[in-house]
Amino acid sequence: MTRPSAMLRWKVQADEHYRAVRTLQREHRRQKRRIWRELQFVALAVFALIALAMIARQWRATHQPPIAFLWMFGVPLLLVAGYAATRPIALKRAVKRQLGDDPSTQQERRYTLDGAGLKIDGESFHVEMPWAKLIVVRETNEFFLFVTRKSAFYLPKRAVVWPERLEDVRELLAEYLGDRADVR
Asked: Does the CA dihedral 157-161-162-168 come out positive or negative?
C-alpha cells in the first residue's frame, strides 16, 4: 500500500499573513510554560498592589497626593500598559515590512506532505522537514500550523480546495504525526 501524500499550492496574502503570524504567536505563548507566564502576571499584580498601598498610606498620612510615589510607580506601570497597547500595531508594521522586504514572501508556495515529511518549495527557496522535527501541527479555523523548535510555518486552509481533500490532509497528518497532530 502506498502512503498518502498531498501537494498544495498557494500565494501569501498580506492580511492572511498577519493573521497567521498572530495565530503562531498565540500558539507559542500557549506552549510557553504556563507557570512562567502566570508568575509574570503575579509579579506585575504584586508590584501594582504594593505601589497602590504605599501611595494610599502616604496620602492618608499627609493628606496630599504623594507625587514622588506616583512618579516612581506610575511611570513603569504606564510604560508596561503602553507597550501592551502598542504590540498589535508593531506586529502589523513588522509583518508589512517583512512582506515588502523579503521577495520570497511574494512567491507561490508548494507544500508537499508525504512519507518523508513536509517540503515547502518556492522559486528561490526549498525547505525539507522530516516529521520527527515537527513538535506539533495544530489546526485552527483558518490555518494548519507547523511548529518546530526553531521555526514555524502555516498552511492556509484555502489552499486545500475541496472539503474531502481537507479531510485527507487531516488523515495524513494524523497518520504521520500521531499525537503531535492536533487536527479536528
From this structure: negative
Per the structure, how many domains does the chain have? 2
110, 145: one domain:
yes
Cα-Cα-Cα-Cα torsion 178, 175, 26, 135, nearest 10 degrees, comes to 60
Please report which confidence band the pLDDT of residue 33 belongs to, taking 50, 70 and 90 as the band edges. Answer: low
Q: Using the predicted structure, report yes or no on whether residue 45 has a pLDDT greater than 60.
A: yes
**Rounded Cα distance, 132 and 136, in Å:** 10
- Which residue, 64, 84, 101, sits at the end of a domain? 101
Single residue among 101, 117, 144 that ends a domain in this structure: 101
Domain span at residue 39 reads: 30-101
Confidence of residue 1 (pLDDT cuts 50, 70, 90): very low
Which residue shows C-alpha cell 500521531?
178
Bridge partners of residue 17, in order along the sequence: none
Nearest-10 crossing angle of helices 67-101, 14-31: 130
- Mean pLDDT in residue range 99-122: 85
